[in-house]
Write a structure and sequence with these properties.
about 170 residues, 3-stranded antiparallel beta sheet, 4-stranded mixed beta sheet
Length: about 170
């Protein structure tokens, strides 16, 4: 995607490295989340694991009665952001620098390699199924190459924009 976008625009695009991603996420704050502590109400700010995530669908073809499956999913019970899984990009408030969905909706690949072979990339941020502590600015994760990923997207940095500026893009799931 970055090669395609670079060719299409004539500008150089790449994934942000971890430092660029974290700077964009924190937006000048020094708290774990751009909006404060991990126990803050995120219902209008980010799409994370909340009471709606714990809901069990009773739709076709299964038609299970309500309560037939225990709502085992780990989530924050006192918060409801209104989305069980992913939400349309920019459905929540942006951080002070205008970036949407930095802590939630879909986690994001970075340019920073991890692992012994350097082929795997560090993932930052959180997704709709993560509680806030797993989406905090400093939390990082990696996935083994064989693991299928369903909750990670990306945003890009435009290196022609000055100092590797991270720019808004829609997260790709």
């Amino acid at each position: 995607f970055c090669a395609w976008l670079s060719g299409r625009t004539g500008m150089k695009f790449t994934l942000p490295d971890e430092a660029q991603w974290e700077r964009a996420c924190r937006a000048g704050t020094d708290t774990p989340m751009w909006y404060g502590p991990v126990n803050a109400d995120f219902s209008t700010l980010e799409n994370l694991a909340d009471s709606s995530f714990k809901a069990v669908e009773t739709i076709e073809p299964w038609k299970l009665p309500a309560g037939a499956i225990h709502p085992w999913r780990p989530a924050v019970d006192g918060v409801n952001d209104g989305h069980r899984v992913s939400a349309p990009v920019a459905s929540f408030q942006p951080n002070p620098w205008g970036f949407f969905d930095m802590h939630g909706n879909a986690a994001e690949w970075t340019l920073t390699p991890c692992g012994e072979n350097g082929g795997d990339r560090v993932v930052r941020g959180g997704a709709w199924g993560d509680r806030p502590h797993r989406a905090a600015s400093g939390f990082r994760r990696q996935y083994p190459p064989w693991q299928r990923i369903y909750n990670v997207g990306f945003r890009v940095a435009c290196t022609d924009a000055g100092a590797g500026t991270v720019v808004q893009t829609a997260a790709v799931r």
